[in-house]
Design a protein that fits this description.
Blueprint (H helix, E strand, L loop, with lengths): L6 H15 L6 H8 L3 H13 L3 E3 L5 E3 L2 H28 L2 E8 L2 E8 L15 E3 L4 H10 L6 E4 L6 E8 L7 E8 L4 H21 L1
Antiparallel strand pairs: 1-2, 3-4, 3-8, 4-5, 6-7, 7-8
Helix pairs in contact: 1-3, 2-3, 4-6
Length: about 210
């Protein structure tokens, strides 16, 4: 028997998802059409979400995400970090390279967890909070690949730092999470071998996120 859900809450969440995908916002008419409801329903949803800071209206009436969404997103990062750190620690030690969990934040890739190997003579310094364009570097490219259903790893060379090699794989099957697990090192390495290991790590992070 299917669980009962709140239709109003479901519509509100769907509206937020639509606004997240619409870079320049939506009109009430556009939102009503996308949700399959009348304009009155959208007005009520928008008013409620606006009170909580999750939606804002421009002077011309277009709807867009409110800054309250940022507070919710920020609260998610520690949860992601806690789930990923044991996997990243094992990955960094196995591969001998800096391991990281990176998430999509708008059009950028944002590092939310980083673990450096303990036994190497040198390694790439990669800080939590580092950002770069999604279409540059293995971490961002893997996130983009995951959005279109690709599950394999992505390897890059020197796209973010001269001499640095990166391998990353998308974290898949976790609703609302666009992320990748990757490693970065100076000098060449066996991308195929390390890629397979990174794919397993990404799957392990996804499993921990799904089941806590």
């Amino acid at each position: 028997m299917a669980a009962e859900i709140s239709q109003t809450l479901d519509r509100g969440l769907r509206l937020l998802s639509l606004l997240a995908e619409a870079g320049d916002g939506l009109t009430v008419t556009e939102a009503a059409s996308a949700l399959g409801v009348n304009r009155t329903v959208v007005y009520r949803l928008a008013a409620t979400l606006e009170v909580h800071g999750l939606l804002r209206r421009s002077p011309d009436g277009r709807l867009s995400l409110g800054f309250g969404v940022l507070a919710l997103a920020g609260a998610v990062h520690p949860l992601l970090r806690r789930a990923a750190l044991p996997v990243l620690r094992e990955l960094a030690e196995d591969v001998g390279a800096t391991a990281h969990l990176t998430v999509a934040d708008g059009g950028e890739a944002l590092a939310v967890a980083v673990v450096e190997p303990s036994w190497t003579a040198y390694h790439v310094a990669y800080r939590v909070g580092s950002r770069h364009a999604l279409d540059r570097g293995a971490a961002g490219r893997a996130i983009l690949a995951g959005r279109v259903g690709e599950s394999s790893f992505v390897a890059t060379e020197g796209e973010l730092q001269a001499g640095a090699h990166g391998v990353a794989a998308p974290v898949q099957g976790v609703s609302g999470v666009a992320a990748s697990v990757g490693v970065v090192a100076l000098g060449e390495f066996d991308a195929a071998r390390i890629g397979a290991r990174v794919v397993r790590a990404a799957a392990a992070v996804a499993e921990r996120l799904r089941h806590g």
